Amino acid sequence: QVQLVESGGGLVQAGGSLRLSCAASRWPYREYTMAWFRQAPGKEREFVAAITQSVGTTYYGDSVRGRFTVSSDNAKNIVALQMDSLTPEDTAVYYCAADSRILVYGLAKIKNVYKYWGQGTQVTVSS
After folding, report:
1. Distance between CA atoms of residues 96 and 79, nearest Å
2. CB of 38 within 8 A of CB of 45?
3. Which residue has the higher pLDDT, 55 or 31?
4. Which among 73, 33, 79 is positioned nearest to 52, based on CA atoms?
5. How many Cβ atoms from other residues are within 10 Å of residue 5's Cβ?
6. Which of 22, 70, 90, 114 is the most buried (most CB within 10 A)?
7. Buried b (16+ CB within 10 A) or exposed e, 100-118
8. Pick from 89, 54, 99, 42: which is nearest to 68 by CA?
9. How crowded is residue 85: how many other Cβ atoms within 10 Å of its Cβ?
10. How far apart are CA 96 and CA 88, in angstroms?
11. Is the pLDDT of residue 31 over 90?
C-alpha cells in the first residue's frame, strides 16, 4: 500500500523559511504527479504546488508563486517544498498528495484528482 509521509513543518517567524519533504513508499507506478495542498482552519484545502515525474514540470498556486519552490528526487520518490518569505497567511496544515499520472495544470490543482494523501504537517508563521 502506498504511503506518503510529510516532514519538516514547524513554527517560524514571518519572513522566514521552512522546507517540507514528502517521501512516497511502496510506489508501484512508473510515473507520478506529486503535489502540496494546505488547509487553514475554517478554509477549503488549497492547491500550493505540484511537480511531475521525469520531465519535472512544476505548477504553483497564485498565492505562493515566486516564494515557494517544489522539487523532486525521482530516484528516492521524495518531493520537497522550499517555502521562503513566509507570512502568517501561510499558516496551515500542509498535505502531500500523489497521483500515478502526469497531470496538466488544470488537473494538478484539483484536490479530488489525487488518490494518495499524507497525514499532513503543521506550519505556523508568527507575526
Report:
1. 9
2. yes
3. 31
4. 33
5. 14
6. 22
7. beebeeebbbeeeebebbb
8. 89
9. 13
10. 20
11. no
Asked if residue 57 lies in contact with residue 49, where contact means CB atoms within 8 angstroms, the answer is no
CB 10, CB 123: distance < 8 Å: yes
Per the listing, cell 507506478 goes with 29
Give the model's confidence band at 123: pLDDT under 50 very low, under 70 low, under 90 confident, else very high: very high
Cell 498565492 -> residue: 63
What is the Cα–Cα distance from 85 to 22, expressed in whole angstroms? 21
Q: Where would I find the H helices in the chain?
A: 105-108
Q: Is a pLDDT exceeding 90 seen at residue 79?
A: yes
Q: What is the pLDDT of residue 74?
A: 78
- Cα 107 to its chain centre, rounded Å, is 15
